[in-house]
Design brief:
340 residues; alpha/beta; seven-stranded parallel β-sheet; binds guanosine-5'-diphosphate; globular; Rossmann fold; single chain; binds magnesium ion; 2 domains
């Protein structure tokens, strides 16, 4: 494991791939490797790319990666897809879209399918992002399907979050329902070559306006949110971030320069004052709480036999015990075992 850590730090791609597999599967030694790598993290700019299937996330990641490579920056790509494991069509399609990047040693692509619980996927993704960060990539692009809480969790690791929409995929309000608009630093209307792009842009602007009442939630992310008209990125002196709406045609490379610009502007915004540190603190807090929750549950369920748990459920169902008392009993069991 230590050789892998050394290898990763030296830019060895084989070591990187192996360590990522170990981390993804939570193999013995993975935690130690992550500990060894942690002091080397915090340098990459992590960009989350999320949105419904088919909006063009992989195509955009491909185009963005090429744009960064042209500037001489290295790119690590992590594709996380809990809904459709990277088998058959999905991976084949992505391989074709990422073809332009293969053979370039400045790009590393990794996909991660569902394994175990969604919580486990969020953990594994966070760890994988850290490994890519420690490996020294300037940019880490993380593609996730915007489906629910686990994507939101993954995206909370990102420095800049892109939410991708496309015309003609039906319900534009979907994004709001999933709460995904609230995590957007930059909104992208991809497939701008398709009919309906204008109305998608209008719809998003309207929703951003409606988003005002939820400002407090957004503040807890990166800053306040307000509608912006036209400009690719927010003026810096307003003291809050206005998520810009960028149009793109990923397959033609259109709008990519504007998107790169918007991401840079967001980075510059966060680097002002101590915003970046504040956001990082929030992310760390959330992560520690998430991990603690997982670890405590795991520990508890290791001490509790299935039979004991079933019995508890029976008692609750028979109205001999209420769920509140049951939790108390479980916590006491935990305390007793810790004290042992
Ligand atoms: N017309 C058009 N098609 C696009 C555009 N971007 C992606 N596509 C196509 O849309 C399909 C889905 O793209 P993909 O990147 O796999 O979307 P993902 O599921 O969000 O990763 C593919 O057939 C792409 O070639 C675009 O800007 N315009
Ligand atoms: Mg994709």
């Amino acid at each position: 494991m230590i050789e892998w850590v050394q290898g990763v730090l030296e830019g060895n791609r084989r070591a990187l791939a192996r360590l990522l597999t170990a981390v993804e599967n939570d193999r013995p030694g993975a935690a130690e490797a992550l500990t060894a790598l942690y002091p080397h993290t915090g340098k990459a700019w992590v960009i989350g790319v999320t949105g419904a299937p088919g909006t063009g996330k992989s195509s955009l990641v491909n185009a963005l990666a090429q744009a960064y490579r042209k500037r001489g920056e290295t790119v690590g790509i992590l594709a996380v897809d809990p809904t459709s494991p990277f088998t058959g069509g999905a991976i084949l399609g992505d391989r074709i879209r990422m073809r332009d990047l293969s053979g370039d040693s400045g790009v590393f692509i990794r996909s991660m399918a569902t394994r175990g619980s969604l919580g486990g996927l969020a953990r594994a993704s966070r760890d994988a992002i850290r490994v890519l960060d420690a490996a020294g990539f300037d940019r880490v692009l993380v593609e996730t399907v915007g489906a629910g809480q686990s994507e939101v969790d993954i995206v909370r690791t990102a420095n800049t979050t892109l939410v991708i929409e496309a015309p003609g995929l039906g319900d534009d309000v979907q994004a709001i329902k999933a709460g995904i608009l609230e995590i957007a630093d930059v909104l992208v209307v991809n497939k701008a070559d398709r009919p309906g792009a204008d109305s998608t842009v209008r719809g998003l602007r309207m929703m951003l306006e409606l988003g005002h009442p939820t400002t407090r939630q957004i503040v807890s992310h990166h800053g306040q949110m307000m509608e912006t008209e036209g400009a690719p990125a927010a003026p810096m002196d307003l003291g809050f971030w206005l998520p810009p709406v960028v149009r793109s045609v990923a397959t033609e490379g259109q709008g990519i320069d504007e998107l790169v610009q918007a991401i840079d502007t967001h980075r510059d915004y966060l680097r002002q004052a101590d915003r970046l540190q504040q956001v990082e603190r929030q992310h760390i807090e959330l992560e520690v709480v998430d991990r603690l929750r997982e670890a405590l549950l795991e520990r508890l369920f290791r001490q509790l036999s299935r039979a004991d748990f079933d019995q508890l459920v029976n008692q609750i169902q028979e109205r001999r015990l209420d769920p509140h008392q049951a939790v108390h009993q479980l916590l006491e069991l935990q305390t007793l075992n810790v004290a042992k």
